[in-house]
Amino acid sequence: xxxxxxxxxxxxxxxxxxxxxxxxxxxxxxxxxxxxxxxxxxxxxxxxxxxxxxxxxxxxxxxxxxxxxxxxxxxxxxxxxxxxxxxxxxxxxxxxxxxxxxxxxxxxxxxxxxxxxxxxxxxxxxxxxxxxxxxxxxxxxxxxxxxxxxxxxxxxxxxxxxxxxxxxxxxxxxxxxxxxxxxxxxxxxxxxxxxxxxxxxxxxxxxxxxxxxxxxxxxxxxxxxxxxxxxxxxxxxxxxx
Length: 241
Hints:
Layout: E1 2-10, H1 27-38, E2 45-46, E3 55-65, H2 70-80, E4 85-93, E5 105-114, E6 127-129, H3 135-142, E7 147-150, E8 164-175, E9 178-185, H4 192-204, H5 210-218, E10 234-240
Parallel strand pairs: 3-10, 5-6
Antiparallel strand pairs: 1-3, 1-4, 2-3, 5-9, 5-10, 7-8, 8-9
Helix pairs in contact: 1-2
């Protein structure tokens, strides 16, 4: 048996997320459909799950297979996968490699644009907003998320035993009213990035204050923060090992 690593990218618009679901089109489901035509294999492992509508510039998948011909897998998958999934590379890895648990960090990027600067296709890849973002204010408040914190209130997984994550980088940038938010962490809870951005957009529109963001970060009895950014502007950008 041989273990393989797939590096892929995908347009999440037509997918109900990465994780397989009954009667739903998913990234994992498409990979399973095509791999099953090529070889016997064991369960696919993703570096992290993405929600419905979330895109991936870089996603990593590992699996074990009996087939030894790596070129056969590469050539066949490249031609068989649907147009919204791109096989970037395939390599044979050690049996100890795990796409999820071997990863050292993940980076997500959100794209946000003023609706007056948008084109129709932007609605699938970008959050469209009215007005402007106060980048200086957002970068200042974003510093609260850096370091090791309990993100249970910024996640859909608030019942999970371990909700502590370490955020190593989080920055806002602007270019002609196209806003880019990049955040890196050792790993992310379910909808953690969306909840962080949702809260910061609520701050920008004066729905909440910085103290509210801190309270949800440090007071565990408050429950989940009620601001979640839409999935369309979110991209899994890079996975590091």
